[in-house]
Amino acid sequence: DTGVSQDPRHKITKRGQNVTFRCDPISEHNRLYWYRQTLGQGPEFLTYFQNEAQLEKSRLLSDRFSAERPKGSFSTLEIQRTEQGDSAMYLCASGTLSNQPQHFGDGTRLSIL
Amino acid sequence: SQELEQSPQSLIVQEGKNLTINCTSSKTLYGLYWYKQKYGEGLIFLMMLQKGGEEKSHEKITAKLDEKKQQSSLHITASQPSHAGIYLCGADGTQKLVFGQGTRLTINP
Description:
The complex is a heterodimer of chains A (about 110) and B (about 110).
Chain A: E1 5-7, E2 10-13, E3 19-24, E4 31-37, E5 44-50, E6 53-57, E7 65-68, E8 75-79, E9 88-95, E10 103-104, E11 108-112
Parallel strand pairs in A: 2-11
Antiparallel strand pairs in A: 1-3, 3-8, 4-5, 4-9, 5-6, 7-8, 9-10, 9-11
Chain B: E1 4-7, E2 10-14, E3 19-25, E4 32-37, E5 43-49, E6 55-58, E7 61-65, E8 71-76, E9 85-92, E10 97-99, E11 103-108
Parallel strand pairs in B: 2-11
Antiparallel strand pairs in B: 1-3, 3-8, 4-5, 4-9, 6-7, 7-8, 9-10, 9-11
């Protein structure tokens, strides 16, 4: 069990640029989740996949955000035309059933200049 | 939508002292998870509670879910520097977790 892996750990970019984050879940987990966490707050749900199907998206996920999990393994989260308000920690988690714990990666911290 | 309120938001205790963190839900809890987070890092799973009145312990940390399943508490006995961090409660929402705002715990030597 190598745990959930996220890359990069830190991303600094200029406003208006596009960024992409990657998440590699625990191999036997069929569910993958993306959350966003701002300073002093708990994580907020963005979206989740069961295998390759994206089953739910939060209202927080504007049109500038897109997530994929093409082969039901790793996932990418892309933010287009980044804005100042996108600065946050983006956390990925994986799991099996809905009533079982989700296991989190170390996150990608995004800073918008 | 379900909301979780944690109290206190911040806690400073002397090493060796006991402490309690509370998590109150606006709706019945069907699954309650406690996580710990160190600054700038991901969440580490601590415990899961599902049944009213359930109590679980791991090392010096005990978590309880009340009978009515709308409140949970996390109790640390004889706190150590390694207990410092942010403690988050999370509830089973519809196919996702809903989190409280977190409690920042500082342990003073």
